[in-house]
UniProtKB/TrEMBL annotation, chain A:
The keyword Nucleus does not apply. Gene3D superfamilies: 3.30.30.40, Glutaconate Coenzyme A-transferase. SUPFAM superfamilies: NagB/RpiA/CoA transferase-like. Signal peptide: none annotated. GO terms for molecular function: CoA-transferase activity. This is Glutaconate CoA-transferase subunit A. It comes from Modicisalibacter xianhensis. The keyword Transferase applies.
Automatic annotation (TrEMBL), chain B:
Residues 229-256 are annotated as: Disordered. It comes from Modicisalibacter xianhensis. Keywords: Transferase. InterPro entries: CoA_trans_fam_I (IPR004165), NagB/RpiA_transferase-like (IPR037171). Pfam families: CoA_trans (PF01144). This is Glutaconate CoA-transferase subunit B. One of its GO terms (molecular function) is CoA-transferase activity. Residues 235-256 have a biased composition (Basic and acidic residues).
Length: 320, 256
């Protein structure tokens, strides 16, 4: 024999037995999920692929007023097109989660969509402040926004815990920081094995996560390349997910260890060409650093901001 | 060599603090400028790591943001953000965390959260980002920032990131914690924490800078070391490489 023996006999599960095994798997998984207190509707079981929708329809279906929404992308692949669609549809009272609110949440906050913000670093990277965020926090304009702030490490762990179906994340963090004094979602627990004092934060379980990626194949499998941030964790942690992509292709061209999110783990795919602009999509277009600098002037002034939103978002149409 | 700015003096001095082969978790802005200057001069094998997940990166231009494409394209590999914080930082793989800050006090506590009261801030700053855990999970911390009464304050308004606590004892008895800040580099001088009290002490004045200038720019009565040194001037080579780096960077970020 030069190769491995063909798998046969009792070890081989032929086509006919697959559905039974599949059912068994689902049933065990459901029991497990019920045990840790996650609603069964948190994952849409039995789906075979993501639904291809227009961006308008995806946002209309999955982003409800009052929802908890995570729009992720760590400087890279920020889902701006989806953010603009949320503004156009006039969504209100959102709880927004994002490690770095960036310009996208500055815009959503300034446009009055946001009730609460959960974040870990709220600046314009390399430029300065997010002036709409500051105006909301300092002067309650356009209205008061409640904030809950973490460190990056805690939020990254909280997304990971959300994806892992756990109620909390544990980290060696917040030592000596005042953040636990102003955020009641930061607690400390004792390691049952070593006695070490460790920080604990609740896992992140958004109603809907929205991320942008380079491309999807025709079955809705998504490839994320470059700085992958917490894209995968955000999608897997959420009840529903929208992934906007630059394009849909026949073959993802993914290498074996690439960051691929299977279509059956995603609710909706929407094509949004240049959907991460003015952030960037690795391999497609670079970060528009000059716009990030220009945003500082636009966002400093309420009227300049409102004009910008009117011209570039509200009247810019978007797709139907 | 005497034709240089105080900002260049600061960057060159901060760069010299990094040894070749060190693994350094780099903050954006001044720390990133210094760390890359080190890599382009005396420390070609310094390992630069940014919180966006880019590991062992060698950018040709300085990144504007912590996640510029340049960082990923020139990295050995790029990992997810949870992996970066959990395996590489919390896992103890980082020798030096290099941070900037908006406010610092005599015990090196850093404030990047806000000025004023938390519920009604006068000025809202970006927040903690990676710093709270970089400061405690990296082996030691270098801090670089411009020296002024606005930044060097008697008491920070908020301890975003632990230096040595309000009393200098914030790390005492805490297991699995790094040494904390070991040097602070400004455009006027170099400071290190007193080995016992952890209070910052000026150990080296930059050429031409007086004690009075440092005191004038510091919000508390700053101590000076008995053996006060003069920081070595930048070399012509360091200045040339720094200026080229900044020119490349400005050209790059001015474009579309």
């Amino acid at each position: 024999m030069t190769g491995p023996e063909p798998v046969s006999g009792p070890f081989f599960c032929g086509l006919t037995s697959e559905p039974i095994l599949f059912n068994l798997f689902v049933s065990q998984t459901s029991v497990h999920i019920a045990n840790i207190g996650i609603k069964n509707d948190s994952v849409e079981r039995g789906k075979t692929m993501a639904e291809f929708l227009s961006l308008h329809d995806a946002v209309a279906r999955y982003v409800e007023d009052g929802a908890t929404v995570a729009m992720e992308g760590f400087t890279h692949l920020i889902p701006f097109a989806a953010g603009h669609e949320i503004i156009r549809q006039g969504k209100r009272d959102l709880t927004l989660i994002r490690m770095t609110p960036d310009l996208i949440y500055d815009q959503l906050i300034g446009a009055g969509c946001v009730k609460k913000l959960i974040f870990s670093w709220g600046g314009n990277p390399g430029v300065g402040s997010l002036h709409r965020l500051r105006d909301a926090v300092e002067k309650s304009y356009p209205h008061k926004v409640e904030i809950l702030e973490h460190s990056h490490a805690a939020m990254a762990c909280a997304y990971e815990a959300g994806a892992a179906g756990l109620p909390l994340a544990v980290l060696r963090g917040y030592v000596g920081s005042d953040l636990p004094k102003v955020n009641d979602q930061i607690k400390f627990i004792e390691c049952p094995f070593t006695g070490e004092r460790l920080a604990a934060v609740p896992s992140i379980r958004p109603d809907v996560s929205v991320v942008h990626a380079q491309r999807a194949d025709r079955k809705g499998n998504v490839l994320v390349e470059g700085i992958i941030g917490v894209q995968k964790e955000a999608v897997l942690a959420a009840k529903h997910s929208i992934v906007t992509v630059e394009e849909v292709v026949d073959d993802l061209g993914a290498t074996p260890n690439a960051c691929v999110i299977p279509g059956w783990a995603i609710s909706a795919i929407a094509v949004a060409e240049k959907g991460a602009y003015p952030s960037y999509a690795h391999g497609y277009y670079p970060r528009h650093n000059r716009f990030y600098k220009e945003w500082d002037m636009i966002a400093r002034d309420r009227d300049a901001f409102n004009d910008w939103i009117k011209q570039n978002v509200l009247e810019a149409g978007g797709e139907s | 060599m005497s034709n240089y700015t105080s900002a260049e003096m600061m960057t060159v001095t901060a760069a010299r603090a990094l040894q070749n082969g060190t693994t350094c978790f780099v903050g954006i802005g001044l720390p990133s400028e210094a760390a890359n200057l080190a890599r382009l001069t005396h420390a070609p094998d310094v390992v630069l790591i940014y919180e966006s997940g880019t590991l062992q990166t060698k950018p040709d231009v300085l990144p504007l943001s912590i996640g510029d494409g340049e960082l990923c394209e020139t990295a050995l590999t790029t990992v997810s953000v949870p992996e970066m914080f959990r395996y590489w930082l919390q896992g103890g793989k980082i020798d030096v965390g290099f941070l900037g800050t908006a406010q610092i006090d005599r015990y090196c506590n850093l404030n990047t959260t806000l000025i004023g009261d938390y519920t009604e801030p006068k000025v809202r700053l970006p927040g903690g980002g990676g710093a709270p855990e970089i400061a405690t999970n990296a082996g030691e911390i270098f801090i670089t920032l411009k020296h002024s009464k606005r930044t060097f304050v008697d008491q920070v308004d908020f301890v975003t990131t632990l230096g040595f606590g309000r009393d200098g004892k914030g790390r005492d008895g805490v297991p699995n914690i790094g040494k904390g800040p070991t040097r602070v580099i400004t455009d006027l001088c170099v400071m290190t924490p007193d080995p016992e009290t952890k209070e910052l002490v000026v150990t080296s004045l930059h050429p031409g800078v007086t004690r009075e200038q440092v005191q004038e720019a510091t919000g508390w009565e700053i101590r000076f070391a008995d053996q006060l040194e003069t920081t070595p001037e930048p070399s012509g080579k360091e200045l040339e490489i720094l200026r080229e780096l900044k020119e490349r960077t400005d050209r790059h970020h001015a474009g579309d």
